[in-house]
Amino acid sequence: MYSEINYQPNGMVHTPKSIMEVDNWIMNLNGGEKIAGMTAAYMMYNFFCTALEEKDKALREWISKEKEEAKAISRDRKNRPLYECNMGAAVHDKLINLEFYLDGKGVDIK
Question: How much is the pTM?
Answer without folding.
Answer: 0.65
